[in-house]
Write a structure and sequence with these properties.
Elements lengths: L2 H8 L14 H12 L11 E5 L2 H10 L5 H4 L2 E8 H4 L4 H8 L5 H19 L2 H25 L3 E5 L4 H7 L6 E10 L13 H4 L4
Antiparallel strand pairs: 1-2, 2-4, 3-4
Bound molecules: flavin mononucleotide.
Length: about 210
């Protein structure tokens, strides 16, 4: 089996982490590097990541995350946040992200035009825009979890939380948003059985 498929088989949504085991810092930094190098729509890299290590914050978060043990037991807790204002088509950030490609001024304007057209319906609805940036975070998170599994590091994606409460606890700036979280660490219990539909059930060729 390829290393990638082995990692896919190793990864599961880990519910109980070993509180005695910390991820070595170099390995955790390499997981963060996988976030940094993940792809995003138009290359906007809309994620801003908070690594929550503070015990008091973790305790407060747990109560707002369906009381899930992973929040306090994991070695590293990663919270993905986004900011609608940053990715709006008239934001200086967006222009800079296109300019860094070394394009001509004309090409940058063309990109901005395509981007603006694509984003127009999303910009008319804050929630749609927020969902678009959140989607990018999920790609990074998935890469990080699979990569972590190659290092025999467990993870649990976490969507089960009260968004407003979490944003208040983390003092997320007005207009910014928490997209999703991910706990990393080491399992205590054996891996749960991977239940999946068959290829036949999910793939259709036309
Ligand atoms: C985006 C996302 C959010 C999730 N949120 C939670 C969560 O809040 N708590 C939890 O225990 N599992 C969570 N899960 C784990 C799923 O329940 C799990 O991946 C699924 O049941 C398949 O099991 P497996 O990952 O162990 O193979 C989440 C998974 C994804 C992809």
């Amino acid at each position: 089996m390829s290393e990638f498929l082995e990692a896919m088989a190793f990864r599961h949504a880990c519910k109980r982490f070993d509180t005695e085991k910390q991820i070595p810092s170099e390995q955790f930094e390499s997981i963060l590097e996988v976030c940094r190098t993940s792809p995003s729509s138009f290359g906007m890299e809309p994620w801003r990541v908070i690594v929550v290590r503070n015990e008091k914050l973790r305790k407060a978060l747990k109560a707002s995350c369906w009381n899930q043990n992973q929040i306090i037991e994991c070695s590293e807790l990663v919270v993905f946040t986004t900011d609608n204002d940053t990715v709006r088509s008239d934001s200086p950030y967006v222009r800079k992200m296109f300019e860094r490609r070394g394009l001509s001024a004309e090409a940058v304007d063309t990109y901005l035009g395509v981007y603006g057209n694509y984003l127009k319906p999303l910009e008319e609805d804050e929630l749609l825009l927020e969902n678009w940036t959140a989607k990018q975070c999920y790609i990074a998170m998935a890469n990080m979890m699979t990569y972590a599994a190659t290092l025999k590091i467990d993870s649990c994606p976490i969507e089960g939380f009260d968004k407003e409460e979490v944003e208040a606890i983390l003092d997320i700036e007005y207009g910014c948003s928490v997209a999703v979280m991910c706990a990393f660490g080491y399992r205590v219990n054996p891996q749960s059985e991977q239940k999946r539909l068959t290829l036949k059930q999910i793939i259709e060729y036309r």
